[in-house]
Amino acid sequence: MDLQAPFRTRSPWRLLVTQGPQTEDYGGNPAPGALDLCLQKNPAEPCIRKPVSAEPPTDAGFTPGWGPHYLEIAKPVYPNGQGGTPLLQLVTASLHAGDGDQLVVTQLLKYDRSRDVFERIYFHSTGTNTNDEVRFIADGPLKGAVISAEPTQNAPYAYWITVNTLTSARTYRQAIRYRSATRYNDGNPLAVIDSEMPNIEQRLGLWRPGTPLPTPRTTPCPKPRLKHMELWCQ
What we know:
Elements lengths: L3 H4 L6 E6 L3 E2 L5 E2 L3 E6 L29 E8 L9 E10 L5 E11 L4 E10 L6 E4 L9 E6 L7 E8 L5 E8 L12 H4 L1 H7 L21 E3 L2 E3 L2
Antiparallel strand pairs: 1-4, 2-3, 5-6, 6-7, 7-8, 9-10, 10-11, 11-12, 13-14
């Protein structure tokens, strides 16, 4: 993937992704081979893996198939709009475990033109099969933010919602973290981040009760309503 054009790099940077031989998942089913990701400054130099690689998780349940086998997203994203400076978004996923868990790693990298290098400024992994998600917000009042939803480990079972926002130094910092109003397996068909958007925007001073509810941009929501501060569309 050419990075020189979208990032206006001084050197002909590119992202290289290669895939190993086909393998098997935990159930013995055919699965794609392991991925190797690296950044190359120019064809004469070795590939650099550190900015785009990840350390193995401490949870032994993810070994030995914890590494990336699926490339979900590899593209420039624009936290300040199409005319602004992009970030490189990478999302990779491991093989599925026997219970359906899958390690999904989300990374964002910035390009530092003064040093002609790429730096990772956001890294987060999720691994369960309980509707956890990490989402880069491409537009709207939270444009450029990254929101994660991860299940809590104790009752009442809900989600930890974390919002990281981009600073003027082009780093990410945590803006809010709270326990969701959305409960696990409560019957709401919306993604957790969508059902929590009124809570998220209210906590950040971007929405207040009495004004139109923030509704999903990709999911029809003909009858938006709040139920215990959780957004429902039916």
